[in-house]
Amino acid sequence: MIARLSQFRLKGLVFLAIVVFALPLFISNPFHYGLATQIALIAGAVVGLNLLVGFAGQISLGHAGFFGLGAYFSAIMTSNYGWSAIPALFVGAVGVAIIAWVVGRPILRLKGHYLSMATLAVGFIIAIILNNERELTGGPDGMPVPSFDVFGWELSVFGQYSLFGMEISGDLAWYLFAGMVLLVAVWLAQNLIDSPIGRALRSVHGSEVAASVVGVNTAKYKSLVFVISAVYASVMGALYGHFHGFITPSVASFDFSILLITMVVLGGMGSTIGVIIGAVVLELLPQLLADFQEMEMVLFGLILMLTMIFMPKGLLPTAANLLAKRRSKSAGGDA
Amino acid sequence: MFSEFLQYLFTGITIGATYALIALGFTLIYNASHVINFAQGEFLMIGGMATVSLTAMGVPMLLAIVLAVVLAGVLGVALQRLAIAPAKNADVVTLIIITIGASIFIRGLAQLVWGKEYHVMPNFSSEEPIQIFGAVLNTQSLWVLGVGAVLVAVLVYFFTRTLTGKAILATSMNKDAARLVGIRTQVVLMLAFMVSALLGSIAGIVVAPITFTSYDIGIILGLKGFVAAAIGGLGSGMGAVVGGLALGVVEAMAAGYLSSDYKDAVAFSMILVVLFFMPRGLFGAKIVERV
Fold first, then answer.
1. Which domains does chain B possess?
2. Of A157, A300, A307, A21, which Cα lies nearest the Cα of B94?
3. Per-residue confidence (pLDDT) for residue A334, from 0 to 100
């Protein structure tokens, strides 16, 4: 069964890789590339959040705080202090890891709604600081972010690059880069899930008391996965900032935290591919609903509510269940 | 010096009383169904907005208030019947997302009907503020405090003296046992949502002349109510009142003496400190987890 499971996981990664690299065949305009890049980066953060929510069964309503911290750290270091983007990204991630560890140890003792409240508070405090430290962050107006550079080589949406002898535009280059980052993020997450750490986390999800009785250091594993998911958010936030070239405190806002966790729940908690689908759906939905203008908010709320009421397990698990049922029916099997 | 302190105290207690009412609404629903209702703030918004628009249409103030409260009550029942009840076996996070979806939906509707502008509601009585030891007290603050006190008294009476109130309490303690003694728990859940919506809308109406009102005030007010409920300890009525008042006063003091930019940060730091020392809030019940 374990073998089948990991085989399924590998299939997921291959499937994702095919989708990521086939997409450029179907789209060509810069706006669509930009949207796809943004979705890939946010999906990366959601994959990290899913480790915490879907596997360890903990709630975070403040994850955008870590996304924002990563974005702002990289932005401030590269634009004000002349750092290169890669070291800024790594040092930012380490900093966020330390903050998440310090904050996580005490608040992960909390359960259920108290944990939601505490993570929400942490996210809010970060957003308020980013909003108010105008000299450093530009305040609510935001700040420009230099383009992403690797050892003097710059990745910009306005650039022109050649890859394997092909001329490609900056938009496409950014998209391919973000797609690869997402694949690496998924690969790392799947390895973690199949490791002893992943099993310990799932035992915490099942029953924390039972897990600690059989000798799992639940506090340690919960903090660890909190830190890992915060680092995912920080890295994706940093890349997001470089990609957009401009960030505002909205990247750390409560609304964005809610959006991130909604992507996890809507797509299907605990399913890596599922939560990516959640990210795609929730990023595309506002684009589709934009035509309805005034009705946009009503429809968005309605769709969110109805989906969660009728598919409480999320889109992918529900679809998979339906398929499995149909298959067993058509085989005439008695399940 | 003293007048300054008194001024902040008045502001804090007024807004704190509002938070307490919102927190009580959270507590009611949490007790009956263990759902944290992120749409709680929308009941306040509906109360304020409906009253303003009805009076603008020429409906007498008192009738407008009654209609607004009824509207919120209907909305509360609808929320329970149409969104919460069908998803009864869903995860905690899923239920949170459902109530968030509901709050976005309600906010969207309000924006369609009433637009995006801020609306002003006149004070219930005199616009002339009262002077006490050099501090200024808005007459509407007295309304907020008075109505808050009356509502708390009514709730205490309702839960300790009436059969319906006791049925809600019984359901919150043990749903299966309540059903066994003949309590219709589905009706009780509906009632809890309705009472919570009534509370929220009344709070929204009395505070509207002070804070103004618009389609999106529900978000932050709802969150503050959640903070207050968590400080007091989820599920404790006493905790909700104390938590609300404490939050309001601390916020007003922080705005006055520290920095108004950081007053919300102080509120959210407060919840972290409280939960650090008391993981179930000030008055939260100790819950034993069964394996």
1. 2-277 (1.10.3470)
2. A307
3. 45
